[in-house]
Amino acid sequence: QVKVVESGGGLVQAGGSLRLSCTVSGLMFENYATGWFRQAPGKEREGVSCINWNGAGKYYADSVKGRFTISRDNRKNTLYLEMNSLKPEDTAMYYCATSWKSLLSLAECFSAADFGTWGQGTQVTVSS
Q1: Which residues contact 117 (CB under 8 A, 6 or more apart)?
Q2: What are the CA-CA distances from residue 119 to residues 66, 67, 88, 124, 128 (Å)?
Q3: How high is the pLDDT of residue 53?
């Protein structure tokens, strides 16, 4: 069975940095696009960033562009999200998800419907 496990969340002050990791097992990780979503209390889940199967295509939400960097290591079946210059509005539960597609368009990247397997999430809290 497919298993998706996020880690690396925590409490950080505004302006700080965190690096999230997501390890995927039970499927051919290198064949599929993967992404990060987040959900803050009382808000809808939103797409943060995604990366295509070979790492060549990456998309970012406008709210994180220039501050967050997504990457993947297909040898380790792991997805990363480097988050810098964190803001209180970045506080949310962050979820990793795998798509059943290898390539995603910009619109598909931020659509949860294009992702089939989700982790349990890792909490990121940014204090002001």
Answers
A1: 2, 4, 24, 27, 97, 98
A2: 25, 23, 23, 15, 28
A3: 95
Reported as a single tens digit per residue, the pLDDT across 80-108 is 999 999 999 999 999 999 999 999 999 99
Could you tell me which residues are beta bridge partners of residue 69? 82
Sheet holding 78-83, edge to edge: 3-7, 18-25, 78-83, 68-73
Concatenated DSSP letters of the chain: --EEEEE--EEEETT--EEEEEEEESS-GGGS-EEEEEE-TTS--EEEEEE-TTS--EEE-TTTTTTEEEEEETTTTEEEEEE-S--GGG-EEEEEEEES-S---HHHHT-GGGEEEE---EEEEEE-
Cross-strand partners of 89: none
Question: Kind of pairing, strands 115-118 and 34-39?
Answer: unpaired
Question: Residue 38 and residue 44: Cα distance in Å, rounded?
Answer: 9
Structure tokens belonging to residue 35: 């992404």
Q: Which residues pair with 6 in a beta bridge?
A: 22
